[in-house]
Amino acid sequence: MKNPVLQTFPLSSPWQTLDPFLFSVYHLDHFPKGNGDMGPDSSLLKGRNLGSDFDPTKKWRMYHGQTIPGFPSHPHCGFETITIVNKGFCDHSDSLGAAGRFGKGDVQWMTAGRGVQHSEMFPLLKDDEENTLELFQIWLNLPKTGKFVDPHFKMLWNEDIPVVEEENAKIKVVAGKYKEVKPVAPAPDSWAANPENEVAVWNIHVDAGSEYALPSASNSVNRVLYFYDGDEIHIGEKKIQPNFGIVLDPTQDVHIKVGSKTAHFMLLQGKPIGEPVAKYGPFVMNTQAEIQKVMENYRLTQFGGWPWPHPDNVHDKDKGRFALYPDGKLDMKK
Q1: How sure is the predictor about 6, in pLDDT bands with cuts at 50, 70 and 90?
Q2: What is the pLDDT of residues 233-251, one digit of tens each?
Q3: How many angstroms separate the CA atoms of 151 and 113, rounded?
Q4: Whole-angstrom distance, CA of residue 322 vs CA of residue 215
Q5: pLDDT category, 199, cuts 50, 70, 90?
Q6: Cα dist. 84→27, 106, 276 in Å?
Q7: 158: which DSSP letter?
Q8: CB 100 within 8 A of CB 94
C-alpha cells in the first residue's frame, strides 16, 4: 500500500488550506487576569503593536482590541466563517442585530453572503486567574451562486455537537458525517450543506502512545490534517513533528501512531469548488471587478450599519452563554 501522505508543510499563521477552504487560524493565548472591565490586568503599551501583534512567541496577543482583546467591527462578504472556541469566550455582535457569547466548545457558523459587519471580542471574565483562549477560525468559500445570499448567523452549542469516543481517540464532529455519526446541520446556504461535497471539520484528539485510524473519503475531495499540538507522530515510515500540516490521499485509511503526548489535530476536507478566487482582505469574490463592486457597496451601505454602541462591543460580564438572532429569538445556555 502506498503512503497516504502526499505532502507536509510547516504551519504558519494563518494555516494554509486547500479549496474549498480559504484559510484557518489557530489562537492559543494565555491572557492574564481580568481587570474587572473584561480587559487584561496588564499594560498594553509594553512592546505591543496593536493590529499586528500576532507574534506566536508571546504568551498572549491583543489583535486589534484597544481595551479588550479581539477584533472590533469589520466587514465580510462572499464566504463563511466557522469559529470554534474550546477555551475562553467570544462575544459576537453584527450588523444584522445578532449577538452572542459562546465558548466551552461552542461553534459559531456565519454566512457572510452579500455582506455583513461583525465584531469578535474575547472578554476576560476571570479576575482571579488567567483567562486562556483556544480558538480556531476557518474560512469556507462560497460558490459563485452563493456569493450574494442573505447573511446568516447560527450557533452550534457544544452540548449538541456529537463527539465520537473510540478506544484511543475522541473526534468532535463539527461538520461532515464521521462514519455513521451525523453533525448538526450547517448554515443553509453553505457549501457544507450538500452532503455530496463531503465537507468535514473534525477536531481529533488521540491518546499518547496509541494508534488511530482515520477513515477514508472519496477521491473527489481535498483533505488536510493539521497536527497542532503533541509529540511526534508516525504515518507509515514518515515521522511528523507538531505544527505541521499533512496533505492526505483521501482514498486511503490513515493509520497514525502517536508519540509520548496526546496528539491534537484539526481535519479540513471538502470537494473543491473549482472557481476563480479574488480576495481583498475580508472580501472574497470570483473576479477583481466584483471585488470593486463589493467595496463600493460597502462604502455606500456599510452592510446595514452598526447598531451597537461600540465597535468593540462586549456583553454584560455576568451574561453567560447566549445567542440573540436577527428575528429577536433569544437562546440562553448555562
Answers
A1: very high
A2: 999 889 999 999 999 999 9
A3: 5
A4: 35
A5: very high
A6: 10, 6, 27
A7: G
A8: no
pLDDT in tens, 173-192: 999 999 999 999 999 999 99
What's the CA dihedral at 79, 84, 85, 89 to 10 degrees?
30
Tens digits of per-residue pLDDT, 32-57? Answer: 999 999 999 987 766 677 777 777 77
pTM over cut 0.85: yes
Kind and range of the H or E run holding 289: helix 288-301
Contacts of 284 (CB under 8 A, 6+ apart): 22, 77, 78, 79, 139, 141, 142, 277, 278
Cell 471585488, residue located: 291
**Cα separations (Å) of 76 from 63, 81, 102?**
17, 9, 20
Beta bridge partners, 266, equal: 203, 226
Give me the residue label for grid cell 464532529: 173
- 55-94 burial, b at 16+ Cβ within 10 Å, e below that, comes to eeeeebbbbbbebbbbbbbebbbbbbbbbbbbebbbbbbb
**Cell numbers for 251:** 482514498
Q: Which helix (H) or strand (E) holds 290?
A: helix 288-301
Q: How many CA atoms lie within 13 A of 212 on its CB side?
A: 22
Q: Which domains does the chain have, with CATH numbers?
A: 1-12+162-275 (2.60.120.10), 21-160+276-306 (2.60.120.10)
